[in-house]
Design goal:
Elements: E1 2-7, H1 11-20, E2 27-30, E3 47-48, H2 59-78, E4 82-83, E5 87-91, H3 94-110, E6 116-119, H4 120-126, E7 136-140, E8 144-146, H5 148-161, E9 165-167, E10 174-178, E11 181-186, E12 189-198, H6 204-210, E13 219-228, E14 239-242, E15 252-255, E16 261-264, E17 268-269, H7 280-293, E18 302-312, E19 319-322, E20 329-333, H8 339-354, H9 380-389, E21 396-398, E22 403-404, H10 405-412, H11 421-428, H12 441-452, E23 473-474, E24 477-478
Parallel strand pairs: 1-2, 1-12, 2-9, 5-14, 12-20
Antiparallel strand pairs: 3-8, 4-8, 5-7, 6-7, 10-11, 11-12, 13-16, 13-17, 13-18, 15-16, 19-20, 21-22, 23-24
Helix pairs in contact: 1-5, 1-8, 2-8, 10-12
């Protein structure tokens, strides 16, 4: 019997696990995928929003601003790439200048600090590649860029080191409440707990329906992106938004913490919560809108297209808190943007919900720091010392990102180890460069096979079924 079961290990589920691992509680995290951060968390704009966009008085407004405040120190402690690079919202006409004024007023009410309304010339002085058609901007210096999957990994790795139990490939197939306790059935066994937190993202509605309390509807909404090479990474130095509309915050242009340029997304309602395909129509729209903000973007430098699915809720707010019909069942639903920004604050709320229901005794030896070796960032002296200690750090596997075999092996033996090529990619960056794994992919596959003790044919690219090899060929015949 666990004290708490968390369903889903995206950034919100991982943040809740991290926060609850401070206390002497037994916590299990059930994740349907073969890795964490494999849903909306890994496919979004990677922005920590300032907090001027949500309507005052909403959960979004409160949690966005608080999450933004918490993020720098959290990332510093957990060694997560984060850069407070600021953001501009652009206006192209008088009507949009009025929108900027409204956003500014909203931000002031929400508690956002440091905002300024700029003229077009003032905005171009900060970002010379902005369109000449820009007549003003809202500057918010507290906005930033982050690596969302690295944040999730850091949170759940730290939680596991503090005693949280993580179960991957464990989709909840049935959930019921009996005698004041919850029973969750998965292909990997049955789990019982006093309380359940529903952090299943676009699948939250299905989880709530198992208890007969799905009093809301989640509308999956797809957004498509371009990821451009590092040669375009300094096209802008801060996140460039357009004025928000009924479809969301609009198409943005932003540097990433890894030095690339990200462009997107559009916003299209879909029926499949896992529908992450790209479309020619969607990408054409993203390109057209991005060039309106920054006309000089070179889309010839595109190295990857991807899409993610938002969990839209009709009330345009996060649906969080104890379910009115099922005591002990806590909803973390409708977590779309700014969900990533809000995750640390949402997790603090989640812990507060349990106060008075469970004894929240802080652990005497809570681990709240984490460090990861990034060989590329070391000095020459540090690199040489590391190679002398472990020669695997002297073998570069990913040339684009200068990722070594030592880093890959360390990740494979971490508290939440990768078992796929893309799992390694998300942890250490091998395959994130210009060639997108064309050179290092087979070598990563070999290392996974060796370290996990499995045949090469069993090493997956990502999700179950994504086989890279199916056997050997000899003399032209398949073996």
């Amino acid at each position: 019997m666990y004290d708490v079961i968390i369903i889903g290990c995206g950034v919100v589920g991982a943040a809740c696990a991290y926060e609850l691992s401070r206390y002497d509680l037994s916590v299990a995290v059930l994740e349907k995928s073969n890795d964490v951060a494999n849903g909306t968390t890994k496919a979004n704009s990677a922005i920590v929003h300032a907090g001027y966009d949500p309507h005052p008085g909403t959960n979004m407004a409160r949690l966005n601003v608080e999450g933004n405040r918490l993020m720098p120190e959290l990332c510093k402690k957990l060694d997560v790439p984060f850069r407070q690079s600021g953001s501009h919202v652009l206006a192209f006409c008088e009507a949009e200048l009025e929108t900027l004024k409204a956003l500014y007023a909203r931000g002031v009410q929400n508690g956002v600090v440091g905002m300024k309304l700029l003229t077009g010339d003032e905005a171009r002085a900060m970002e010379p590649n902005l369109s000449e058609a820009v007549c003003g901007s809202l500057w918010a210096p507290s906005a930033g860029v982050i690596s969302p999957w690295e944040l999730t990994l850091a949170l759940i790795e730290t939680a596991v080191r503090n005693g949280t139990e993580l179960y991957l490939q464990s989709p909840v197939t049935a959930l019921r409440q009996e005698d004041g306790c919850f029973t969750a059935e998965t292909p990997n066994g049955t789990f019982r707990a006093k309380y359940v937190m529903n952090a299943a993202g676009v699948h939250c509605e299905q989880i709530a329906a198992m208890l007969g309390c799905a009093d809301y509807a989640i509308q999956p909404n797809r957004g498509e992106y371009y990821l451009l090479d590092k040669s375009e990474g300094t096209r802008v130095h801060s996140t460039i938004f357009q004025c928000p509309n009924e479809n969301g915050k609009g198409v943005l242009v932003s540097p990433t913490v890894h030095g690339n340029l990200i462009v997107g997304p559009n916003a299209v309602n879909i029926s499949d919560p896992d529908g992450t395909e790209n479309t020619a129509e969607g990408l054409a729209f993203v390109r057209e809108m991005a060039l309106r903000s920054v006309p000089s973007i070179s889309f010839r430098e595109n190295i990857r297209n991807f899409s993610g699915v938002r969990a839209n809720h009709p009330d345009d707010d996060f649906l969080i808190g104890e379910n009115r019909r099922v005591p002990g069942f806590y909803e973390l639903a409708g977590i779309k943007s700014p969900g990533l920004s809000s995750a640390p604050a949402i997790a603090r709320d989640a812990a507060a919900w349990l106060a008075g229901k469970l004894p929240l005794t802080q652990k005497a030896h809570f681990i709240d720091t984490r460090r990861r070796i990034r060989f590329q960032e070391l000095s020459a002296e540090e690199k040489n010392a590391l190679i002398r200690e472990d020669p695997l750090y002297g073998r570069v596997i990913c040339r684009c990102e200068t990722v070594t075999e030592g880093e890959i092996v360390a990740a494979i033996h971490s508290p939440v180890p990768p078992t796929t090529v893309n799992g390694v990619k998300r942890r250490v960056g091998a395959g994130m460069g210009r060639c997108q794994g064309g050179f290092c992919g087979p070598r990563v596959q070999e290392i996974l096979s060796r370290e996990l003790g499995i045949p090469m044919e069993q090493v997956l690219m990502d999700q179950p079924g994504t086989y890279i090899l199916t056997g050997e060929t000899k003399g032209g015949a398949h073996k």
